[in-house]
Amino acid sequence: MMITTKRTWILLVAILCQVVTGLQDLNAVKQKFQYKHSFKGPSLVNSLGDIHFWEYGGNAIPSWDQVRVCPSIHSRQGWLWNKEKFSHSEWMVEIKLRVTGRMKTGADGMAFWFTEEKAEGGPTFGGPERWRGLGVFLDSFDNDGQQDNPQIQVVMNDGATSYNHYVDGVGQDQLSCLKEFRNRPHPVRLRIIRVKGTLEVWVHEGLSQRDTDYDLCGMVSTTPNIPDEGYFGISAATGGLSDDHDVMSFIVHSLHPLDEGKEATEESAKEYQDRFDQYAEELTKKRGTPSKQPSDHVNVYQDSFEHEFSYEADWERNLRQILETQYDVNRAVKILQDKTDQIINTLLVASPSAGGGALPAGMREELTSIKNTQSLVQHQLGDLREYLEKNQAKGGITSEALQPIYELKHVAERSSKSSEEVLAKLSTLTQVSSCPPPPVCQSCVTIVQLTILASVQVVILLVYNWYRQRQESAAKKFF
Known about the structure:
Blueprint: H1 2-27, E1 29-33, E2 39-40, E3 54-58, E4 61-62, E5 67-70, E6 77-82, E7 91-100, E8 109-115, E9 132-139, E10 151-158, E11 175-178, E12 188-195, E13 198-204, E14 215-221, E15 231-237, E16 244-257, H2 266-287, H3 294-308, H4 314-350, H5 361-390, H6 399-432, H7 445-473
Antiparallel strand pairs: 1-16, 2-16, 3-6, 4-5, 5-16, 6-15, 7-12, 7-16, 8-9, 8-15, 9-10, 10-11, 12-13, 13-14
Helix pairs in contact: 4-6, 4-7, 5-6, 5-7
């Protein structure tokens, strides 16, 4: 037991030392932005629909603010490859992406590439079957049934080996980690760093918008299979199941030693600063607006860009509508229960004046209508499951499937209004009567109404849970 504990501590210390060493290596280098190997929205595409310095194909769909590498259609794939060859041996790539789908399980996944040659499509997550270089895979589907997905894998290939999908690349990967990257509230970010013979993979799981919430997926020594010069690429694919695979930004920095480029003198730096200030002043005069600090522009742009992609998916909107309508139905039924209790209490006071508990014919019909309405509410709750099952084959919960819930809400509201009218009539009848109130008798109607309210809540929850289980059981992989 002590030996095992000692080995565990040694392993943790070794990992910590690697992380600290990696951070020190990154701090000891200078970053240079490589715009010819990057893209970022907004204004991602030009007037011809092309991405500057990039080419795309397959089912990839570029737009103003993102690239849908592969849409949520069965058995599709898409890809993007940089036109320019990257000639720096040390670099850092930051990718902001989204993987979203209606099902609990998705497929197949997305891949980042840095290879010696470009490949337009293929069986490895929309990328090449064999490649010489680096592949970082975001694998959504558990092909081997080991419950180790979704996961992120790093595979360095020599160009002679094919990726084995049937075992999820087990034995071919140099490192892997279990990370949830589907249906996150914010975009997921990947940071891949190659510096001083080491490859680091950091993951931001999209649970917040803070730039510091990165977790280390792993570190591994690079092999000769990764070329010093190569092409960057992104690909994605779907199978029997499907997800939307979107990339919002792909930012590349080359890494250089701090002492590199010190030939720039202070005079040249001052000259550049003066030229920049002069240009900014002329631009401000042309616009006729007061100048602002550059940091203000950067902060405003970053804030707007971070909140730009916080959209509401279809399944989130439909679920929110169900919950809101359920709340309205519960509130209407509760009001109906309160009005019915008032009617019962009023009847106990008014019945002696009507001759031994007899009620006028019109009022008796209205009470019968209220009772029938309550039965209708229970009946429609029972039919709600059938409506949801009917709309199951149409692609999930739609506005048509929500219609029975809306009808149930209107029925409860009409019943509440009828109860108010009957209560007003009974109040008038009570004011006319001068007979003393009869002895108070214990009634069971209040308990019945409470039971109806509880049944409404339980039935709706059971139907929703049944619907979700039906969706999960239908998720099968046809690879």
